[in-house]
Design brief:
The protein is an all-beta fold and 91 residues long. It has strands at residues 2-10, 23-29, 40-44, 53-58, 75-80. It has one domain (2-83): OB fold (Dihydrolipoamide Acetyltransferase, E2P) (Beta Barrel), CATH 2.40.50.220. Helices cover 0% and strands 36% of the residues.
Length: 91
Amino acid sequence: MFTAKVVGNVVATQKDESLRGSKLLVIKPLFGKPKKEDCLVAIDIVGAGVGERVLVAKGSAARKVDQFSDSPIDMAIVGIIDDIELDESEF
């Protein structure tokens, strides 16, 4: 899993039947120095919106969500982050 910020929406009128009715969001990893081309697309299962920090599952972990177990997804937003606390002495 990793943390990211939601930076946009994806509108796809044609997509896999199993994704119909699902919201797709553009996300940018929070840590490191991501560039615009580092943005990713994830399926939203928690009702996140643009500007929110989120927790993202990827790969097979993303497909563990019941409604998407047979869907062609690689990333799923599984949580909305309220706060992140870091031990600054570790950096």
